[in-house]
Amino acid sequence: MRASNQLLGLLLLWLTGTKCDIQMTQSPASLSASLGDSVTITCQASQNIGSWLAWYQQKTGTSPKLLIYNAKSLAEGVPSRFSGTGSGTQFTLKISSLKMWQPIIVYSVITYLAQ
């Protein structure tokens, strides 16, 4: 978890700089679902980013948790009901069989930036 937090901090630092010209659009912006439902969240990049995309989950009052890296690789300890697909500019996160009652935030992050 420490490495992913450091990575997130580094990315946020870069994203606030003057070179930020890649826009990420995630949809839907919000959704409601019931326990046991499956949900799909999409993310579109304004430029080709290959497979350099990660998905994070943040529950209320906790640090972000890495779910998926390199667009489709499941992070250690993450249940297989989470899956990621896509490359280039189109990415999808699917969560099967929801098991949480509390609100969560799910977001996508570019994980590599060429010089």
TrEMBL record:
<feature type="domain" description="Immunoglobulin V-set">
    <location>
        <begin position="38"/>
        <end position="100"/>
    </location>
</feature>
<keyword id="KW-0732">Signal</keyword>
<dbReference type="GO" id="GO:0005886">
    <property type="term" value="C:plasma membrane"/>
</dbReference>
<dbReference type="GO" id="GO:0002250">
    <property type="term" value="P:adaptive immune response"/>
</dbReference>
<dbReference type="InterPro" id="IPR013783">
    <property type="entry name" value="Ig-like_fold"/>
</dbReference>
<keyword id="KW-1015">Disulfide bond</keyword>
<keyword id="KW-1280">Immunoglobulin</keyword>
<feature type="signal peptide">
    <location>
        <begin position="1"/>
        <end position="20"/>
    </location>
</feature>
<dbReference type="InterPro" id="IPR050150">
    <property type="entry name" value="IgV_Light_Chain"/>
</dbReference>
<dbReference type="InterPro" id="IPR013106">
    <property type="entry name" value="Ig_V-set"/>
</dbReference>
<dbReference type="GO" id="GO:0019814">
    <property type="term" value="C:immunoglobulin complex"/>
</dbReference>
<keyword id="KW-0391">Immunity</keyword>
<dbReference type="InterPro" id="IPR036179">
    <property type="entry name" value="Ig-like_dom_sf"/>
</dbReference>
<protein>
    <submittedName>
        <fullName>Ig kappa chain V-V region L6</fullName>
    </submittedName>
</protein>
<dbReference type="Pfam" id="PF07686">
    <property type="entry name" value="V-set"/>
</dbReference>
<dbReference type="GO" id="GO:0005576">
    <property type="term" value="C:extracellular region"/>
</dbReference>
<keyword id="KW-1064">Adaptive immunity</keyword>
